[in-house]
Structures are given as structure tokens and as C-alpha cells.
Amino acid sequence: MTNSNSLILALKSKSFSLLIKRVFFLGLIIGTTCAHAQSKGKVLCKSDEWLKEIDDKIKVEGHWDEAYDLWNAHFANCTKGNEQWYQLGDELLENRWSFAATNDKRTWVSRRIQHFQAYDRQFPRNKQKHQVQLARLMDVSGMFFSEQISAAYDRAFNQDPSLFTDPELFAAYWTATAAWQKKHTPNFQEVFMDRFLDLAIPLFKEKRETLGNQEQTNWEFLCNVLIQNLTKEEIVYWAQNNFVCFKNQGSELNVITRLLKQLKVTDSSIDLYAAQLDIVQPSSFSAELLAERAVLQRKVLDALHYFKFAIDRSGNKLYKATTYYKMALVTQSTDKEKAQIYLIEATQTDPSFSRGYLQLMELYLSETSCLQSAMEQKALAYLAIQQIEAIEKVDSRLAATLQKRKGILQQQLPTDQELKKAQIIDRAVDLGCWVHQTISFPAK
Questions:
Q1: In angstroms, rounded to a whole number, what is the distance separating the alpha carbons of residues 34 and 13?
Q2: pLDDT for residue 428
Q3: Tell me, what's the pLDDT at 333?
């Protein structure tokens, strides 16, 4: 490890004095020489001697500025091309700022900004990293206008779009942007919503149906900051007034529609956006939203129609299974046969979809009106047991909650004597009603 690296670590670990002695010892062996810098009338261009001088200055509280001056003198004359000494200077400035009095902080923040600018000129590859550090520094210092902070984050994000995947940075950027726009922009709502779109649209690039964890976090940050600065009514009013502007722009329609859904908007504006999105940029999301709206409006046939579109447009088996499950929930009160078909489709599409088996079990056990005999009731109990056994293979936690119920159902199965008395051949019972299955009882 080089001596300047050791000093940086020392500053971070708060055990500077101990490590500087080690660095000094290494410096006696490594020591680099230059013939230009002078201090106190003698040549002092050996790195180890400069490190000792810096250490002597910061041992005494209040001498951080002198330590930085020493660093600056050595840097200017001996180590201008040494990137590690740039890093050391930044560490000194960072620590000096933390000890500075409130009225002195601006001076040290300004020095650090100048330091970053010099660093960037000498080593351009660090520029985007320093833009982030500068923005953060300006943000936490409490001495800059939100517009300046937002602009600093803007530069960082423009140089490196991948920074959008950092939730902490993203939230700080968006919060700063919101603060200065709300304070200084007359038509705040319009500008703010435009900025929201600028930040949100990249999250759904390439027609992504679902977001990764980081993108989802950023979306939630965006929406939360938006809600903190605009009321739900203001957002809906803006969406209604700007529909004509966005009706042929798929990306904008997508983001606004998702926002209205997240806000749980129930008026006609979300119907308007969802229907237009399904025309301009059809997706499983737009179809599912239209289906959900139809369910709320008790338009069952329309709901099933759009749910089917959602399934056809998706390649995700869990999503497909979940959508079949929703179709079953919509129909089970009026058409149990259809509900059974949808639930069987769900479990066949994704055999690990335990909720499908559970709902099938509940569906079988709920039937009482169309059974012709007690033996058919026992057959439904056996069908319910089969669903629990399917759950046991894919979801041990859910299965554990059903063991008591399984035991009760097993007690309802017919004995050999009961089957014989009922003249049941080959232990099989044909279930009519809406089930339309032949049940073969196990030996008991």
C-alpha cells in the first residue's frame, strides 16, 4: 500500500496519527524526491516528510487549514500528476469542512469545489464521479439554492444515465428538482409534471411491462415526491387537460396511465387514458387495467375479454396464471363451471401457483345446491383433498395451514361398506352439476 493511500484510510478510520507513523516509516523506505518545493527555508519534497508535517498540523485541533496549505504546496510543486495526492487533498477538505464553524463552511465548500474542478481537468475520467460528489456536497451543506443542487445532479445524471439506478441519488435529485421548481416557477404544475415525465419515461423503456427492484424503487420515489407537491385533484386536472397532447404518444400515455392507477383514480380520466393506451401501445398492462375497470363497472363479459388479451400479450407464466385466477374470481358467483375451467387453466399454466389449487378447493367445498346424493358430497370432499395434496408439492407453508382441514375431509371419504351399500362400482362416482368429472375414491 502506498503512503498516500494509507493517509486516506487513516482519515476515514479516525485513527490518523497511528497510521501516519506507519506511512512515515514506509516513506523512509519508498521516499520520492523532487527538487523544487521549499518549506521553512529547506527543501521538503520527500513525501514522507510532507506527511509528517501534515500530521503535526492536524494533531492540534483547528489546524486543518494549515494541513491543507501544506498539502497544496506539495501538490503544486511536486506531485501534480499524482492522483493519490488529489484524493488525499479531498479527504483533508472533507474533514476540514466537518469541523468548520457555520459561517466558515461556505469557504471550505468553495475550496472543495475548486479542488474537484482541478482534479477533473487533470484526470477527466473521474469527472462524472465528482459531479455526484459535488451535488451531494452542495445538498448536505445547506448553503445552496435547490436550483443549484438540482443542476449539479442534472450534470451528473446527464454524464452517466446509469446513476438513475441508485435510489438514494435518484430521490435526492428529484427532491431538489421539486423544491426549486415549486418555489421559483410560476406555472409550477405544468413544469413539474413535464419533469416527472422526463424522469419516469426511461424507467419503462423498450416497452417493459414490469420493473426491476431498483427501477420500481425509483418509480415509487417519483410518485411519492409528486404526491407531496401536487394534490391528486391537481394531477387529474392536468391529465384531463393534456390528454389531446399525449393521445398519440405511447410513452407518455403509459406513464400517465400508470400514475393514475397508482393514485387509485376512479373517474373517467383513467378510462380515457387506458383505452387510448391500449390502441397506441397495446400491452398486458393496458388490457388488465381495462379489465379491472370493467369489473368495477360490473361489465363481466368486457372484463373477461380484456383479461384474455392480457394473457395473450404476456410471456410470463405466473402473470398468466394470476390473470386466469382473477377471471375465476369474477365468474365464480354466477358461473362456477367457468370459474373451475379458469382455475384449472391457472394451475396448468403454472403448476406452482398454489392460490389456484386453494381457490379450487374452496370452490368444490362451497357447492351444496346441485348435488344429487351424499356420495357426491363425499366426491367433492375428495376433489378438495386432491387440491391440498397439490399444494403440498409446491407450497409447504400454505400446506401446513391446511393439514387440520385435510384430516377432517379425509374422515368424510366413504368406507368400502358404504360404497358397497350405495352400489358404487370400481369405487367411481360421476359428478354432474358443474363439475363434470369422474371421481375414483381411494381404498379406506
A1: 30
A2: 83
A3: 92
Q: Which three cell numbers stand for residue 44?
A: 521538503
Q: Cell digits for 80?
A: 501534480
Gap between the Cα atoms of 215 and 208, Å rounded: 11
Is residue 167 very low, low, confident or very high in pLDDT (cuts 50, 70, 90)?
Answer: low
pLDDT of residue 68: 73
| CA–CA distances in Å: residue 432 to residues 377, 382, 438 | 11, 15, 9
Distance between CA 80 and CA 128 in Å, rounded?
Answer: 21
* Mean pLDDT within 71-85: 67
What does the pLDDT look like over 201-246, one tens digit per residue? 888 876 666 777 777 877 887 888 788 778 899 899 999 999 999 9
Residue 135: which of 172, 163, 160, 96 has the closest Cα?
172
- pTM (2 decimals)? 0.65
Report the 10 Å Cβ neighbour count for 420: 11
Residue type, 80: K
Question: How far, CA to CA in Å, does 223 sit from each of 235, 237, 368?
Answer: 11, 16, 48
Q: How far apart are CA 354 and CA 377, in angstroms?
A: 24
95 - beta bridge partners? none
Mean pLDDT value across residues 368-382 = 85
440 pLDDT tier (thresholds 50, 70, 90): confident
Query: What span, in angstroms and rounded, lies between the C-alpha atoms of 136 and 233?
Result: 33
pLDDT at position 181 over 90 = no
Question: Greater confidence, 315 or 135?
Answer: 315
Q: Which H, E and C letters describe the chain, residue by residue?
A: CCHHHHHHHHHHHCCHHHHHHHHHHHHHHHCCCCCCCEECCEECCCHHHHHHHHHHHHCCCCCHHHHHHHHHHHHHHCCCCCHHHHHHHHHHHHHHHHHCCHHHHHHHHHHHHHHHHHHHHHCHHHHHHHHHHHHHHHHHHCCCCHHHHHHHHHHHHHHCHHHHHCHHHHHHHHHHHHHHHHHHCCCHHHHHHHHHHHHHHHHHHHHCCCCCHHHHHHHHHHHHHHHHHCCHHHHHHHHHHCHHHHCCCHHHHHHHHHHHHHCCCCCHHHHHHHHHHHHHCCCHHHHHHHHHHHHHCCCHHHHHHHHHHHHHHCCCHHHHHHHHHHHHHHHCCCCHHHHHHHHHHHHHHCCCCHHHHHHHHHHHHCCCCCCCCHHHHHHHHHHHHHHHHHHHHHCHHHHHCCHHHHHHHHHCCCCHHHHHHCCCHHHEEEECCCCCEEEECCCC
